[in-house]
Amino acid sequence: MSSLLAAAPAYRLMNATPLERLTDGRFAVASAQDVLLVGNTIAARGAACAGASPPDTIAIDCTGLLLLPGLINAHTHSPETLRRGIAADSTGFDNWMDAVWPPIERLTPTEVGIAVTLGAVEMLKRGTTTVVDHFRQVPQRVDAVEAALAAYEAVGLRAVVAVMLRDRDERSGEPLQGMPPASEQAALCADIAHRHTGRFASIGVGPSGPGRCSDALLLAAAEQARAAHLPLHMHVDETVAQAKAARTRYGCSAVAHLDDLGFLGPDVALAHCVWVDADDIDRLSRTGTAAIHNPAANMRLGSGRAPVAAMMNAGVTVALGSDGPASNDSLDVLEAAKLAVLLSRSVAGDDKAWLSCGAALGMLVDGGRCVAKQRAASLAPGVVADLTLIELDSPPLVPLHDAAAQLVLGGPAISVRHVFVDGAWVLRDGAIPHIDVAALCAEARVAAGGRIPNGAAA
């Protein structure tokens, strides 16, 4: 691990402007103050910093910087960084899958590491401190998973690598040939989790989706995950075709079937949930199951509009994801928040479905932390120091009237200055000093086949 990511000294963030989340869910800007980080936690704020600062404390001038809990990308697929822009005008989910994924399945562990690193760098630069990576290779390979874990450790981005499992062909419904037995696939996740001892990355169990998994695999995955205290992560009802196929296969919705199996629960997060109905939403709420909204991918692939407001009104925890960088084609979760707000308002006269900017920002921080199984977002002493500092001189924040609204709606002109993950200062003045980004980009072009040399247009 880079010396820059070693056990952190103390940092004193001088004159930072905290953005606090209030008990009613709204966000408010607090007075500028010092914030002390010791080890991997927030140790003190304000006047208390003076008596608590160790002798080797490094002072960082944060005047004019908005301090907020780090952003969470609750759903993506990291290998897709090497397939951006492919099938951009594809008509339908299946056509897109056929165009994008076959080459990704053949990536070597070295190429997987390049793909993951590329995405991690992009996310850090946009203020993300944690990602849930629904990591796909078919068949799943231990060396590929280990390469992804190593890449996140090297960059210093906190990640839950939810190992994707499957044993059925979604289109035919038939068993996939050459796949390991359900129990063996599920045990693979627990084995990797037991052996991995990294600081930033951890393992989750990620059945691909109900249509791609037998009941035996779903039950084995849930059993292994719960025995090892690992989070469960899965696609559900991304497309209307998937929702219809579930009703044909089970005689009920996918969510109802998962509930009947005993799969749902507070350790489960379901990506997309575009085609869920009122009964499904009630089941998610009753079981404490989280949903992950991926508005960019849903629009890009024509999948539909998730009933986010209905889920939130029913008490379902909803987080935000970018989805994969070949179905978006960005990993910017602030962009996802803006799209979530605007998509909710896209149908005239349907203002009950409107999502507020504050709610969208809450989905990024608290909703995302629920999915990643972290403590609720806070800037209080004792909380792990996963922090994002944004320039208040970013044009969309001048003048500052409503910080949550302007952050969410401001777009790419919002400038991220610093990011701390687990107390490590990983983004410094907009750069990642322990990563040679130019060399990484060159490696990524080679790994993608060299078809677009030097970033030139295809």
Specify the biggest β-sheet.
Answer: 9 strands, mixed
Number of helical segments with 4 or more residues: 15
Return the average pLDDT rounded to an integer.
93
CATH topology descriptor of the largest domain: TIM Barrel
Please identify, by name, the CATH architecture of the largest domain.
Answer: Alpha-Beta Barrel
- The Cα radius of gyration reads 21 Å
CATH superfamily of the largest domain: Metal-dependent hydrolases
Tally of structural domains: 2
Cα-to-Cα separation, first versus last residue: 36 Å
Strand content: 15-25%
- The share of residues in helices is 25-40%
**Number of separate strands:** 17
> What gross morphology would you assign?
globular
Please mark out the parts with pLDDT under 50 across 5 or more consecutive residues, or reply none. 451-458
Question: From the helix content, strand content and strand pairing, which structural class follows?
Answer: alpha/beta
User: What is the CATH C-level name of the largest domain?
Assistant: Alpha Beta
Helix-strand blueprint:
Elements: E1 11-21, E2 27-29, E3 33-38, E4 41-45, H1 48-52, E5 58-61, E6 65-69, E7 71-76, H2 93-105, H3 109-125, E8 128-135, H4 142-155, E9 158-165, H5 182-195, E10 201-207, H6 215-228, E11 232-236, H7 240-250, H8 254-261, E12 268-272, H9 278-287, E13 290-293, H10 295-300, H11 308-313, E14 318-320, H12 333-344, H13 357-371, E15 387-391, H14 403-409, E16 416-421, E17 424-427, H15 437-447
Parallel strand pairs: 1-5, 1-6, 7-8, 8-9, 9-10, 11-12, 12-13, 13-14
Antiparallel strand pairs: 1-2, 1-3, 3-4, 6-15, 15-16, 16-17
Helix pairs in contact: 3-4, 3-15, 5-6, 12-13, 13-14
